[in-house]
Amino acid sequence: MAAVATFFSLSPLRSSSIFQLRDLPRNPNPSIRRIIYLKSPVVAASSKNSSPQNIQNIVESPEPDPDPKPEHGIGNIGMEIMSIALPAALALAADPITSLVDTAFVGHIGSAELAAVGVSVSVFNLVSKLFNVPLLNVTTSFVAEEQAIAAKDDKDSTETRKKVLPSVSTSLVLAAGVGIAEAIALSLGSDYLMDIMAIPFDSPMRIPAEQFLRLRAYGAPPIVVALAAQGAFRVAGNVLNAILDPILIFVLGFGISGAAAATVISEYLIAFILLWKLNENVVLLSPQIQVGRANQYLKSGGLLIGRTVALLVPFTLATSLVAQKGPTQMAGHQICLEIWLAVSLLTDALAIAAQSLLATSFSQGEYKQAREVLFGVLQQVGLATGTGLAAVLFIGFEPFSSLFTTDSEVLKIALSGTLFVAGSQPVNAIAFVLDGLYYGVADFGFAAYAMVIAGFISSLVMLLAAPTYGLAGIWTGLFIFMALRLVAGAWRLGTRTGPWKMLWLAPDKPE
Predict the structure, then answer these.
(1) pTM for this one?
(2) 3-state secondary structure 379-396
(3) Distance between CA 25 and CA 35 in Å, rounded?
């Protein structure tokens, strides 16, 4: 449902519509910051709508430059990258912050409850993202197409009125349907899902984990609808969640159920604000809902689903393996994983910046500029950011961990993961940046296959290492997962194959 975000002007990241990407070759403005960030097939479509002159330039390529290097000015590229990445980080930080807040409050109930939340969240993410990722990309594409047509019609009219876009209504109906299906599956299947995670019936985690998952399931519908929510909307939800957590958990004595209820309430608030603002610009329920569009969601997204499964399996497997070792181990692992994910996902803002800038330059035929983006985002920004985060976590991980629990055994386990949490940050940052670069040149196939291979190898490492080395073996497997993603991306860039060859083989667009 990120598709409907194209109608908002509340954030500079989303103020431009997706269809601008198609018209880039005809846009005389030399700025490279002209598109919003979207990890979707829309980027692929952009390269197909270039002008004939631009296509001719690509076909009639001269001899390749044997040693292309970016010229001076990467510093300016770095500023462009950060100007996109910093506001994007605000939006991306919303969900990790919510999880961190829940973990901090639940951790003071007990180690079993903290461990239970970790298991439930892992299952919730696995089920929801399998459906949400293809929905996000498919709806983005056909809403963008219809918005482009509507924008051209609006040029001939001075009347201000709500847009009637059937694709938006279709997207909302699809989102509601998918969200309800997720809620039913998570709520009714909680017992079965806990069995899949290998949580024994006599484990102290079992009952609170099922309880949390059943209540958390009610938040699935607003999550799907609110995928389009801006950073400001999500901040409002985070604030409400932080206020409700202590009230429901401790004051009213609901315990772990209170944490789930606080999260669900905040998610409905985000969805309500989103629909309220969207209604100011678009007719939400169009009488022309395109039922046939649902087939695009059902039939497409194979590569995206495969990539999403490959991404989620290692983390889900890690949670299952740790949970089998008991609540204390699981609680310590949950603290490490929440901090690791929250910090690592912040670096995903760099991937958004990389995708936006590279896609813009690439679609315009500005290959020299695209190379500057490529080297700048990897060397100057990605590596520097990852190194800085590693230093901060090495210094601050111990005091930060103490916010989540007072259990000395749990803290001891959490602190044993300092090397994993902090030391992996440079690798994480570059791996996330490479993800953005894949999407920037529409290299979706390689991105999917590389993720599948990395997920398979790292999962195998965890299965073999966990019985002997315990948590250290599991964390090593997760580190290998990120490292393999980095290696795959470096190999792809180094071979200059697929869409990457255009950066070196094709000439720059004539001035």
Answers:
(1) 0.73
(2) HHHHHHHHHHHHHHHHHH
(3) 13
What digits encode the pLDDT tens for the residues 293-347?
A: 555 555 555 667 778 888 889 999 999 999 999 999 999 999 999 888 888 767 7
Examine residue 42 and state whether it is found in any structural domain, yes or no: no
Radius of gyration of the chain (CA): 23
Pair (124, 240) in one structural domain: yes
Structure tokens that stand for 397 in this block: 């991980």
Structure tokens at 393: 């976590």
In this prediction, residue 6 has a pLDDT band, given cuts at 50, 70 and 90, of very low
Q: Which tokens go with 11?
A: 């954030």
DSSP state of 366: -
Residue 40 to residue 355: CA distance in whole angstroms: 10
CA geometry: angle at 234 spanning 188 and 78, to 5°?
125
Amino acid at site 103: T
Continuous segment of H or E residues that includes residue 102: helix 94-107
Secondary structure (DSSP) of 17-72: -GGGGTTGGG-----S--S----STHHHHHHHT--HHHHHHHHS--SPPSS----S
Residues 379 and 503 grouped into a single domain: yes
Q: Can you read off the two tokens belonging to residue 26?
A: 């005809």
Give the pair of three-digit tokens for residue 390. Answer: 């590693």
Question: Which among 373, 355, 360 is positioned nearest to 509, based on CA atoms?
Answer: 360
Expressed as residue numbers, the domain containing 358 is 61-92+301-511
177 with 141, same domain?
Answer: yes
Tell me the C-alpha distance between 80 and 376, whole Å. 10
Beta bridge partners of 282: 163
State residue 163 phi and psi, 5-degree precision.
-80, 140
Distance CA 172, CA 175 (A): 5
The position carrying tokens 């440079």 is 426
Output the CA torsion sign for 464, 469, 471, 473.
Answer: negative
* CB environment 231-253: b (16+ within 10 A), e (fewer): bebbbbbbebbbebbbebbeeee
274, 318: one domain: no
Q: Are 468 and 452 in contact (CB under 8 A)?
A: no
> Within 13 Å and on the Cβ side, how many CA atoms surround 370?
27
| 320 and 370 both lie in a single domain | yes
User: Residue 476 half-sphere exposure, CB side, CA atoms within 13 Å?
Assistant: 13
Here the tokens at position 246 are 């202590």
Cα–Cα distance between 198 and 323 in angstroms, integer? 8
User: Are 309 and 64 contacting, i.e. CB atoms less than 8 angstroms apart?
Assistant: no
Q: Tell me, what's the pLDDT at 150?
A: 61
Burial of 306 from C-beta contacts in 10 A (0-12 / 13-18 / 19+): middle
Predicted confidence (pLDDT) per residue in 392-421, tens digit: 999 999 998 988 998 999 999 999 999 999
